[in-house]
Amino acid sequence: MINPVEILSFGGIASILALMCAVIGGGVAALAPLVIGLRKLRWPASVTWLGLVLALVFGVLGTWLGASAATTAVSASPEIVQVAIARAIAGAMYSESGSLLLLGLAFLLSSTATAVPGPIMPGEAGKVDFAAIGGAVAGAVLGTILAVVGILFLSDMRPSWIGIALYVVPFVATVGTVNVLVASLRISSEDRNQQARMVGLRGLTMASAVVAVVLIGQLFANFGEIQAFKAVAVASPDQKAAMLTTGLEVAGWARTLSWFLVLPVLFAGLGSILPHLGRADGRVAIGFGIASAQMIIMAVCLVLMRSAINGIFQQLIGQVTP
Predict the structure, then answer these.
(1) Do residues 297 and 51 touch, judged by C-beta distance below 8 A?
(2) What is the pTM of this model?
(3) C-alpha distances out from residue 236 to 151, 245, 319, Å
(4) d(CA 199, CA 280)
(5) By the 8 A CB rule, do 82 and 233 touch?
(6) pLDDT tens figures, 231-264
């Protein structure tokens, strides 16, 4: 479990700001798309991600503060250096994990909130959107087949204690796929503006769900690494390297699982959008541009987080291997 004391101890003010932004931004990201959709506003719903992006930026700062504690720990006495480094990296990863947990849940809620207005308020002369439903179902089936094949291909390399990630990550992906299908149910047969709005909402539903799956997968990867490094801090010398290797295997498999399970969500979303892509207007393009820019920022933040953690990995590996 995530220990708030360790988050505050190692991440400091940056971690506090990250958690505050995640809570406030999560509320906005969950409620604002619902209001925009039900009131038929033409504002880009992707602007509601701003608080979540800011939370991830502060999460990066908290992770790097924890990483700096590990760098300082290298100069500790030989008797305690391994324990000091292991605890420092656990603190850095707790800071990262706290942000990932709240952000993953917030993006999943945002995906659900964005999907709801579609079938409730389809506009004038609303009808069942068989083209979008067929495209979404076909995309979901294709993505599921590819994901299952990929997971089965890697099943021999799956660690024995992958844990609840094997259930939670598929659950998040399933909820995201269902959200896309719900958003595809109905559309206006006459109102082109409403049709364009539906294209935008379906795209944002897909994007929010994709981000949620990736973040939750990274969260469980962190859990595996935290457990491994805590074990390294107290294990006997002949077990340290083995425990470290096992933890890294769990982390790698959790990340791989999330990337495979993104495929059903992604393909279902694309299948629901393509039949009406020609209806997209300038406002939809602006919304997609804002969402794309924020996803790039979030991807950079995740890379920076991993860079900080990997730097400490190398220090700890140097301490536990001959």
Answers:
(1) no
(2) 0.84
(3) 34, 15, 13
(4) 6
(5) yes
(6) 666 666 666 667 777 777 777 788 888 899 999 9
